[in-house]
Design brief:
This protein has about 140 residues and is mainly alpha-helical. About 80% of the residues lie in helices and about 0% in strands.
Length: about 140
């Protein structure tokens, strides 16, 4: 089925809007990195939480770079971001976290890591093939 003119115009408009949103995300991430660096500079100290926050920003920028370069987004990138976010939460609030919550956070990190392994295995074992109907 070939798309009609309205479908092509709508698809092009959505693509442009999506590119605009990606640019906004990139600018906001760069701004957040500078804010985090300024915070560390003013506090005259660097904590593990600060470093993990910078790693979060780095993963977001890496995800944007990969998406803009290839046009697709592997599910692994958000999973990496989730692991780093949970690790940062665990590091920052370790004094207030009870044993059960710590166990749940650690288990969540383990489950996400296992999900990454499953996704990687599936990608290697069952690689994607281009469908002729989806090629442009």
């Amino acid at each position: 089925m070939t798309p009609n003119k309205f479908s092509r115009i709508t698809q092009h408009g959505l693509s442009l809007f999506g590119q605009g949103v990606l640019i906004v995300i990139a600018i906001a991430t760069i701004f957040a990195v500078f804010q985090a660096i300024m915070h560390m500079w003013e506090a005259r100290t660097i904590s593990v939480g600060d470093l993990l926050l910078l790693f979060l920003y780095l993963e977001v920028m890496s995800m944007l770079d990969h998406y803009l370069g290839s046009g697709n987004l592997p599910v692994r990138y958000p999973l990496y971001i989730g692991i780093i976010a949970l690790a940062r939460y665990l590091v920052l609030d370790i004094a207030e976290i009870d044993a059960w919550r710590m166990f749940a956070l650690s288990g969540s990190i383990l489950l996400i890591a296992l999900a990454i392994l499953v996704v990687r295995y599936g990608h290697v074992r069952f690689p994607y093939t281009d469908c002729p109907s989806q090629s442009k």
